[in-house]
Every structure is written in C-alpha cells, then in structure tokens.
C-alpha cells in the first residue's frame, strides 16, 4: 500500500487551503450576507409579512456569527438544523474530535472538511429559519451566469445541432469520434466557469466554445479521452442499446449547459441509452447544480429559444430525451458530505451500488477531483489509480480544470514545466486533466 500523502490543510501556510480559508471564504460569506440583506425587501415582499424581517435578521446574525468563528479559528460545532444530513455531519465531527489531539477548527482541520463544512453551515443558517429554509444565497449569481453566457450557449447549441444532423444520417464512426472528443473538451473547459474560484465574482463564458479549443489544447496535461471513447465503443459492442453513462455534475450556468450537450450527443448518437445526471441536494461551493438550478435551466433555455432561434433544434432534442427518460437528474446527500470518494462504499452503499451499474462515470470539476484523490498532497507523478485508492465502482473519467494545489498522474518533470510556464497554475484554470481509470 503506497504511503498516504498528507491532506491539504490551512495549518500549512504554503497550501492553497490557507489562502482559501483566510481570504477567499470570508469574501464569499460576506457576499452571502450582502445578498440576503439586499434581497430582504424582495424576499419579504414576495412573502408579504413584516414578521419575516425578524426571520431574515436571524439568518443574517447566524451568518455573521459564522464569519467571526471562521476568522478567529473557533472550534467547529455540531449542526443543530435537524435536516436529513445533520446526523451524518455531527457523527463526522465526533470522529474528527476522537482522532485529533485538539478540537477541529477552521485553520487546523483538513481543507476538504472545513471547506465542505463552510457551505453546509451556510445551509444551516437558512434551515434554522422559519420561512427561508431552502433559500439559495447563490441562486441569483448562477442564473445570471447562464444568461450572460447565452452567446456562447447558442453558438455551441447550433454547432452541435448541425453536427448531429449530419452524423445521425451517416455511420461514419471516425467522424463521430472526432465530434465526441471535441464535445468532451468543450465540457472539460466549461469547468472554468466556477463562482467559487472566482470568489463569487462573475465568471461566465464569453468566448466561442469551439473556436477557443485549439488555444486551450496545450493546457491539457493528461489526456485519456481516447480511452473513454474506446470504453463507450466496447460497452456498446457487449451490451448494445443498454449502455448507461453517469455525469457527476459540478457548476451551473455555462458548464451545466456543456454537460447537457455531452448527454444529448451520447444519447442521440446511440453511444448511451441512458445518461444519469447527479446534482447537489443543497447549495454548494457557490455554483454547483441543485434540482432548482436544473429545472430553471431547462425552462430558461426554452424562454431564450424564443429570441435565440439557434437554440431551438438542440432544445427539442434535449426535451425529447428528458421526456423519454434517456436523460435523468437526481441528487444524493453523499455529494454534499465531507467524506472523500474512497469512503463512499461505507458511507453511501446505495450510491456506490448504483454507480457500479454504470459503464462510464464522468466526474466534473475540481472538488470532485479533490475527493477522488482524498485532497492529499501526492507527488504529482503518483499514478492516478494509486491516489484514488479503493474507489472503483465503474470505469470513470475526471474532467477537471485545475483550481487548487493537488494533482497526480503527471510525467517526471512535467510539474516543473507547468510551474515555469505559469507559477499561478493552481488558480488560473489554464490547465486541465482528462484522467481515466477502467473498472
Ligand atoms: O469543483 P469546482 O467548481 O471545479 O471548483 C471548486 C473550487 O472552486 O473550490 C475550491 C477553492 O475554494 C477548489 O476546490 C476549487 O477551486
Ligand atoms: Mn463547483
């Protein structure tokens, strides 16, 4: 068994974790407080009673108390909101208390734990209110980020529709493979549009998603995309018309649109008979997709197609696949717990068993990647399969733009090359990996 690398933590000032906990999360939390304060009038007006003001004041004071706790490195406390994940979170806290010499706190515990706890605490502040239990303080930003990406959305939709109309009439496997690899790269770089790395500042897509690919290509440090194509071909040979693909979603907005493009492509080109999309059950890491974001996105694409007619053909395909059940959306509590994926089989055996029925699972984004490799500071030349440890429910592929300081699977000397090219490599989202592991 390879020696486990140490987890990222803000107790090491050289870790990106330190900058995140010290600087970035307080900024994000301040924006949440401002959003709830600013929206107070519209939130109350929509609900029409002055007493709601006190309810909102309760939320704001809990968030302010959380900010003070974060900035003064107070011990983490059990959650009190009595939701379906409260017990799991409090059990995890108890385990941390048992296995560390001092009470877990923001700057002493692992980065993965405290950053996940940060977003779960924001949800607790809402869940403890009377009338705003499910309030998503990031909802407005996520909606705005899709609307401001509409030029890129419509050009991508039009491009894909044209390709699908030609390919579905031909049985040109090579041409299909080429478009698959192109859409996969579009989906990969869609992950640049993430509101957490941007400190909740605007981060929508402005360039043409297809035309930008050649300039981004050199930033792909590991490219196993050919192996994912082969897995799809092999799965269709052994079980024609029964291939299942899962996409573990990340960010809403433009990235989610690129996920929908990949899903429609796989179904309409008969590379998968079902694509199961997995979202988050609570607002998460600012821009992650919730069930509310999923429904709003489908509705909004409909609204937009009235003016952006290039959307129309793609949207028809998408809606047909949603109605037929070829594309589905679901959530599971596990995705918003603190455990990394090596613990899924123990913590969420039902989810692990479901993923075991998949022929290919795509994990989108940086946080999913961190959870695949345990958010540990592995040597970058460590093999991906070593860092993933025992997690292997099915063949899977990480599609991740790099936004923090954990990375594996590189060649000898490759990390040094990257650092020379861009010392800011862990925050610039200029680099990415497509890393595949067979089942
Ligand atoms: O999972 P995503 O949306 O690609 O990225 C999540 C993220 O923005 O949050 C953390 C930094 O606070 C990092 O893991 C990463 O930068
Ligand atoms: Mn995210």
UniProtKB/TrEMBL annotation:
Enzyme Commission number: 2.1.1.-, 3.1.3.-
Keyword Transferase appears in the UniProt entry: yes
BP term (GO), one: DNA damage response
Residue ranges the record marks as coiled coil: none
Cellular component per GO, a single term: nucleus
The Damage-control phosphatase ARMT1-like metal-binding domain, residue ranges: 20-417
Reaction equation(s) it catalyzes: L-glutamyl-[protein] + S-adenosyl-L-methionine = [protein]-L-glutamate 5-O-methyl ester + S-adenosyl-L-homocysteine; beta-D-fructose 1-phosphate + H2O = D-fructose + phosphate; beta-D-fructose 6-phosphate = dihydroxyacetone + D-glyceraldehyde 3-phosphate
Pfam families: ARMT1-like_dom
Cofactor field: Mn(2+); Ni(2+)
Keywords for the protein's UniProt record, in alphabetical order: Hydrolase, Manganese, Metal-binding, Methyltransferase, Nickel, Transferase
GO molecular function: metal ion binding; phosphatase activity; protein carboxyl O-methyltransferase activity; pyrophosphatase activity
Family under the similarity heading: Belongs to the damage-control phosphatase family. Sugar phosphate phosphatase III subfamily.
Notes on the domains: Subfamily III proteins have a conserved RTxK motif about 40-50 residues from the C-terminus; the threonine may be replaced by serine or cysteine.
Protein name, as recorded: Sugar phosphate phosphatase
